[in-house]
Amino acid sequence: MICDEDVMSERQSPGGQSLLFLTDEQLRKGIEAMFFAYRGFTADPDRILNKYGYGRAHHRALHFISRAPGTTVNNLLSILGVTKQSLNRVLRTLIEDELVESRVGTRDKRERNLFLTENGTALEQELSDAQRERMRQAYREAGPEAVQGFRTVLEAMMDTDMQRHFTRMKEGRHD
Amino acid sequence: MICDEDVMSERQSPGGQSLLFLTDEQLRKGIEAMFFAYRGFTADPDRILNKYGYGRAHHRALHFISRAPGTTVNNLLSILGVTKQSLNRVLRTLIEDELVESRVGTRDKRERNLFLTENGTALEQELSDAQRERMRQAYREAGPEAVQGFRTVLEAMMDTDMQRHFTRMKEGRHD
DNA sequence: CTTGGAAAGTCAACAACACTGACATAAAAC
DNA sequence: GTTTTATGTCAGTGTTGTTGACTTTCCAAG
């Protein structure tokens, strides 16, 4: 699917660091690929969410609460990178609809520890299944070396603080 | 950056097709990487757009008009995947602000051919420069094989009609 | 024990950007 | 000459983000 003219030239600098020479055209294609792929990436969950009257923001909250059960609102805020008012609106509906449970913190009673209820877990599963299925399909088509490369470039594309969050989640640390 | 337990097992099926065995955990990490990376991907343009009072929708329009000068509204609609009302709002402000020029079609006078003005080209350049710089940096860090894999997985992740658009743009066909 | 500040929640207002539905105009196609 | 297509517009609605102001709760340092 990637044409010959797209193969990047690689040279070795005197310092030993490998240099890539990339044309604007190659970079633009990467940008467009990212745009189109992200649409595909969110398409399936979006359809499901629509069915229940929720949006992407609800999905994100469900996802990260599922990943880090008992996480606090503040932690969620810094991961999602939105204002507390914005998150609160979403969280409130999820709590009202009994998809998320908010328990007063044991150590610090100001904090709220967030958990998915049975229903919440069910919806998160439905969303996650769809998205993982698409991911699995893409990974299968592309092959294992491509997947390795995919992950490497994505990590390099993150902002440093997002990388910090990502690394934490990878290591299973949800503090 | 990618830990040992993440390396995917690969087996050869009797048919000769390579099979990948992926855990939910591995796929979830991919999903999160995609989420965080897309934020990084749009962060720089978002800052610039904010400076001029525009949004992501304006950026997308500028990008694809720049890629396919003379493209029609209908073509833009199918690439962007939004309603004409939504696109029209954005396009109207860009034309009012003299970043985009809308010429009546020569072959078919119902159509409008869209072009960037001098100012439009300048803003598109500013946005594109920032985004390409981040892309270039990520590519450099990751190396050429990773870039190949990145693009392959992204293409596999698109919906089929998005793939069609993407392939067209790659080939320089903007019909 | 008091006070400062952090964590959480709320209210109001606003903007960007998507949607639907209805309607208008011009031009091509049949 | 009727229908279809391409475009544009108006009005209304919903999600998701923002800012700013304010309250309550509660830990912790003075």
Please provide a written account of the structure.
The structure is a homodimer. The first copy, chain A, has one domain (about 25-170): Arc Repressor Mutant, subunit A. In chain A, the strands form two sheets. Chain A has a three-stranded antiparallel β-sheet. In chain A, strands 1-2 form a two-stranded antiparallel ribbon. The N and C termini of chain A lie far apart (about 40 Å). The first copy, chain A, is mainly alpha-helical. Chain A is built from seven helices and five strands, in the order ββααβααββααα. Chain A is about 65% helix and about 10% strand. In chain A, a hairpin with a 7-residue loop joins strand 4 and strand 5 (about 110-115). Mean pLDDT of chain A is about 90; it is low at about 1-5. Chain A binds a DNA duplex (30 and 30 nucleotides) through helix 4.
Report the order of strands and helices of chain A: EEHHEHHEEHHH
Q: What quaternary form is this?
A: homodimer
Overall average residue pLDDT of chain A = 88
* Residue share in β-strands of chain A: 5-15%
Question: What separation lies between the terminal Cα atoms of chain A?
Answer: 42 Å
Low-confidence stretches of chain A: 1-5
CATH class of chain A: Mainly Alpha
Structural class of chain A, by secondary structure, is mainly alpha
Radius of gyration of chain A: 20 Å
Task: Tell me the overall shape of chain A.
Answer: globular
CATH superfamily of chain A: Winged helix-like DNA-binding domain superfamily/Winged helix DNA-binding domain
Largest contact between protein chains?
A-B, 68 and 67 residues
Q: State the total count of DSSP E strands of chain A.
A: 5
Examine the secondary-structure arrangement and name the CATH architecture of chain A.
Orthogonal Bundle
Biggest sheet architecture of chain A: 3 strands, antiparallel
> How much helix is in the residues of chain A?
55-70%
Structural domain tally of chain A:
1
Alpha plus pi helix count of chain A: 7
